[in-house]
């Protein structure tokens, strides 16, 4: 009887260890939807950087294309925020278009 009790307690303890809490991992920049209202054609790259922050990715093939990407290990984290924004500048560094997803 004592062996059964000890075995049961040991299994309960080990089960608790297996179901440990997972830590959410976030990467990138979350963008508030209200921030997009300040984007307009003709802004310089410095103005966009001050408004949103530095881009997550600048293509080595297209230096005039900035990507803001956010990823979280929790798919339900901050669902109201913009998690992908692509901004494009002309050859002089002025904002020409942007798209979000």
Q: Care to describe what's here?
A:
The protein has one domain (28-100): Beta-lactamase Inhibitory Protein, Chain:B, domain 1, CATH 3.30.1450. Strands 1, 2, 3, 4 and 5 form a five-stranded antiparallel β-sheet that branches. It has helices spanning 2-18, 45-52, and strands at 26-28, 57-58, 65-72, 84-89, 95-100. The protein starts with a helix and ends with a strand. It is an alpha+beta fold. The protein contains two helices and five strands; from the N terminus they run H-E-H-E-E-E-E. A hairpin with a 5-residue loop joins strand 4 (84-89) and strand 5 (95-100). The model has no long low-confidence stretch (mean pLDDT 83).
Class from secondary-structure proportions: alpha+beta
Number of helices: 2
**Residues in helices, as a percent range:** 10-25%
Q: The biggest beta sheet, please?
A: 5 strands, antiparallel
CATH class: Alpha Beta
Question: In a nutshell, what does this entry contain?
Answer:
The chain has 101 residues and is an alpha+beta fold.
Q: Which features characterize this protein?
A:
Beta-lactamase Inhibitory Protein, Chain:B, domain 1; alpha+beta; 5-stranded antiparallel beta sheet; 101 residues
Which secondary structure elements does this structure contain, and how are they paired or packed?
Layout (H helix, E strand, L loop, with lengths): L1 H17 L7 E3 L16 H8 L4 E2 L6 E8 L11 E6 L5 E6 L1
Antiparallel strand pairs: 1-3, 2-3, 3-4, 4-5
């Amino acid at each position: 009887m004592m062996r059964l009790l000890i075995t049961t307690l040991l299994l309960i303890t080990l089960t608790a260890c297996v179901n440990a809490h997972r830590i959410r991992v976030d990467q990138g920049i979350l963008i508030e939807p209200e921030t997009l209202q300040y984007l307009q054609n003709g802004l310089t790259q410095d103005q966009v950087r001050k408004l949103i922050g530095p881009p997550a990715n600048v293509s080595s093939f297209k230096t005039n294309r900035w990507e803001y990407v956010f990823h979280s290990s929790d798919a339900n984290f901050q669902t109201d925020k913009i998690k992908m924004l692509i901004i494009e500048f002309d050859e002089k560094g002025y904002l020409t278009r942007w798209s979000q997803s």
